[in-house]
Amino acid sequence: MYNLIKDDIISFDKLIIEKYHLLGVDETDTIILIRLNDLLKKGERLLSVDKLAPTMKIKEEELGRRIVDLVTKGFITLELSSVDAKEIFSLDETYRRLSFLLEAEDEARNDETVNHKIKTTISLLEKELKKILSPLEMEMVNRWYLEGNYSDQEIEEAILKALKYKNRGVSFIDRSLSSDKKRSEKPTPKGENIQELFKKVYVKSK
Fold it and tell me: Which one of 96, 120, 139 terminates a domain?
């Protein structure tokens, strides 16, 4: 995610405008970071207040103060160039913070999806089994999805298999999933190749 933002595959401008309030910066700081990112895209790494000032509505003095503040907060990183010892800047930490926000949102969406699947499965089982699931049974259903051992298809097939029989509940589904997984993970014995089989048949027929 970090590289996608840094390489502007994910639009930096659009992303920071959407997320600046989560980063703890205001609109003016956001525009400064966007302008600095524009310079980086052009290959310009020298931090020059004089170059930025004409593109901003704020006075040069305030611009300088805000840049110092962004450096202090870690959004802008300064270092000396190994070529000419001039001060150059990077926004790597800003890219990194934005990537953390996106990854956290993705994780939250995934959690929400998993929770929805768990609730839907519990509702289905309670409806089909005509009973309220016990805490232990609910824990089993939670494990099917949260531990990541089974695919959605495997869970659905195990439930359908159980519902075909009377008095087959959550424990049966849990055992079925476990035994099916063990069978699928068991290595299959290597078969004999055609030449070996041919030799056996040929020798026997002599």
Answer: 96
